[in-house]
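Database export, one record per block. Field names are fixed; values are copied verbatim from the stored entry.
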Amino acid sequence: MQNAVGFVRPKHNNIWLILSCFIVLVGLYGVVQVFLHGQEESYGITREVPWGLLIIGYSFFVGITLGTAVVGALAHVFKIDSFNIMSKKLALVSVSSLIAGFFIIYWDLAGPYDLQVLRLVVYFAEFKITSPIWWLVVLYASELPLLAFEVYFLLSQKENSAFYASLIGTSLSIVAYGTMALVFDANSSRPLWHTSSFALFFIISAIAGGFGVVLVMIFLNNVTQKYKKSIIVLSKTLFFLLTFMLVIDFWNVVINSYSSDVLLGATMRLFIGKGVLAYNFYFYEIILGIILPMFLLLVGRFKSSVLAFISGILTIVGLFFSRYDAVIGGQLLSRPSESMKFVLHNYSVSASEISIFVGSIGVLFFVYFLGAKFFNLEESTL
């Protein structure tokens, strides 16, 4: 029995919902540590490296939101039938991932004893239109209700309303994610972030991550036979996006290594040769996150659901490490104005940060499976 918005009696989601709760509970360790000892002692961040795993996690989760929203928009806006798959589930993933992003960024802001919601309202009301962070707050605060409306309209089978909600929501998602890249890019003292391709790579890799999520969902939902054509189109599109990312990475290394900015050139050497981030960059970001998925997609001729599933997982892993390398790599090296020598800083992820990141994954799963418990997310047509 279901109503106009697809409300159904819960069936098989209770186990997943309970498991999600346990994953959320993992995050309590980090939360308790922050309450007891504060952020400075609980997190691995320092004055020299103030942005750590929580900022990385935030950019990762909202990147998944962007990627899945784009896939949904390609179906609603451009009427590409091959992308019109599990649209309700994809829209719910977009909402769930954005909420997970809000959860993790909350614990990176100031501390649990501050009235975060009140601070957000005051900051929003001050209309600091020249501040990228102000725009980031405004855009993401506007995006969440739009994505939620898209889910509602899809459940209510109001295709015209879902079309506009998807169009506006996805547009906001792209602009918001670009604005987040601008928050990094505007910091000219971090030359790795202050490059022309930084925002472009952020957006393209997030979209690739969204396509990876879709391929994983098709396999896990056991609809590989039903969506054979979709798997081919999605796999080919992912292959193109990965190729684009590989080209950007290659020229970033080449051009930035020979930059007239000596700090940028020195920063790039952290990613090559025996640099402290070389293993991360070569193995996790390039080989595991780009080259191997491309190889598997080619081996399967873009038709194998199993290889597409593995490629999707690897792309998501690569997305995370691309964020890690970019955020941490931009902070590890500095050159004091009174000295010509470079100073290499250290960053080690703390147990509290890992705990909160895992808890955020649990939040994503909890919100998604809570929606799956109460609403009919199955598609009646392609």
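Remark 1: The two ends are 22 Å apart (CA to CA).
Remark 2: The first helix runs from residue 14 to 42.
End of record.
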